[in-house]
User: Fold this.
Amino acid sequence: MVGRAVSARDLVLGRLRAALAGGAHTPVEVPRDYRHEGTLDLDQLVERLTDYRAHVHRVAEAAVADTIADILPAGGTVVVPPGLPPAWLPPTVTALSDDGLDNARIGAADAVVTGAAVAVAETGTVVLDGSPDQGRRVLSLLPDRHVCVLRADQVVATVPEALARLTPQRPLTWISGPSATSDIELIRVEGVHGPRKLHVILVP
Amino acid sequence: MNRPTFLGMPATAPPGVGHLRGDESFPAAARRSLADPQLRRNLRHATTTIRAKSAGVIAESPDWEQLRAAGAAIKADTLNRLPELLEQLEAKVIEAGGVVHWAADAVQANQIVTDLVRAAGADRVIKVKSMATQEIGLNEALHAAGVTAVETDLAELIVQLGDDRPSHILVPAIHRNRAEIREIFLREMPGVDPALTADPSALAAAARRYLRETFLSTPVAVSGANFAVAETGTLAVVESEGNGRMCLTLPRTLITLMGVEKVVPTWRDLEVFLQLLPRASTGERMNPYTSMWTGVTPGDGPQAFHLVLLDNGRGAVLADEVGRQALRCIRCSACLNVCPVYERAGGHAYGSVYPGPIGAVLSPQLTGVDDNASLPYASTLCGACYDACPVQINIPEVLVHLRAEAVDARRRPTAESIAMAAAAYTMDHPRLYEAAQRASRLSRVAGRRGRGLPPPLNGWTASRDLPDPPTETFREWWAAR
Ligand code: SF4
Assistant:
């Protein structure tokens, strides 16, 4: 043993094993009697998204493009993930489909339009998982506005239900309102580094 | 396999590196904070506001107590199986294209990160707020190696530009008001608009402009982690501003440093912590952004991912069956916001990067109680921290335990014998003696029966007088309670 180099891995694991040695360990039962499911209430989602200063629009799927046309300036550029349904985009905007767009172009766009993977009504949260209608994480990060189209069947009531629907191996972004800070005198300021405006279009 | 014992003796965090030890005792440092009325006003405003917000969203959760019990049990279970879970996490991260490094202490961790940054050819890194990197003094280590570390969290940026220290886990710049922040930005922020006003949204916009280019042009990011899932290899970072997303998405190389205790066994366990943390911490139903990633995703985000697993005294904490529960901490800062001592003394008084009640139990265990001997006394044992803690850490129990440990020269730990041992011990340590003196003044002001002063000093001063009468500052402190 003398003179043998000990890897940091062995050292750390050895220390932790030594720390636990000797103690009597009754296995810990985790009580899971917290709520797993809740009653789904779309009004609650809308209320909680709004409470965190997201703008919510409830329209029929056929009206998504018109809604986006109202939100975005005519002639604006919109970053679009490759799998976004084309019918969602109004003719008034210029779509930049992501075929490996560089960060400068993404950041200079007026908005990004994405779909969503899951939403949580109780917390007012939308989750993106990088599916083709949501795209790379950078797409929903650099533009100043994020328009997220959400279908009612993607909404669950509780956090446990959301985790059960998600695939951990995908890159996940949980979004609850626009970027915000309260670091200066605890005064809430919206829009620090992420999109300063979040629009959620909820379709049946 | 039998491991040789020399390999496995849990060690405390080494001195001379990082920020777990203050330059002076808690009472000495607290006295300076007490003399700063602006700081006390800011702190009171912060703690009162966050407490109220948090209480509101906790009241919305009908199963809050069940979630707390589950959170505490998941963490207790994790600690019991920590080595196996870390090995599982390591395997999963590697399987997903990441690289895993182990660091026995701050020196090793700093070296690993510095080498990785150099290997990536970078002379600048962007950082998302991480207590672990503050604990090990990473910014200083990088600086010594010629690498600039840019803090991207607004509060951390204010602290960094102001050449200052964080005072609160959650709102590290709470000791600064808007006018001071404006001055710091005007003085230290390259390219800042000289017409900058002190309006918080203008200050935030200045930080956005300043950092945007840095985010886009820096090839390496360093982050901490709130959770790491052993079952899947998934890492999670919880934040508000989007600077975390920038750091976790834009650079080519991502280096994540986490204390070994941040691992949780299963994906499902996150359903508990994602409810507990935001409500207990910022008082939100959910924080604006949470990022989760598993190794490397081809074509999306950093294409090189390094996970550094840090011990730095955690093994020593784990070895203490009473003190071990401090490793359950999810750094929500709820215990700070309810603590009457923290509210008056402020974060800097605790010396370590971990302030408040959790700091009083964690720092002395990480360093060995000798090096932070006054911290277990930085409490009135009122128990508010225990009630507030989302993972049910019994902080008063650990405080009492550490006090006994600090004076374990005596075999029978009656209140009096502990007090006498403490006296003998502190007389030999001038710094501690000073702390004891101050604390005893505190006791007299607090009441003749020693009410409000933590044992053992209350027991001792009941029968013996220390020289040096009470000072005005501490009278004010307690009078204001
Ligand atoms: S000890 Fe508990 S209350 Fe304090 S920061 Fe840690 S988890 Fe939060």
In short: Chain B has three domains: 15-60+333-411, 76-314, 417-479. Residues B 329-335, 358, 388-391, 393 surround iron/sulfur cluster (CB under 6 Å).
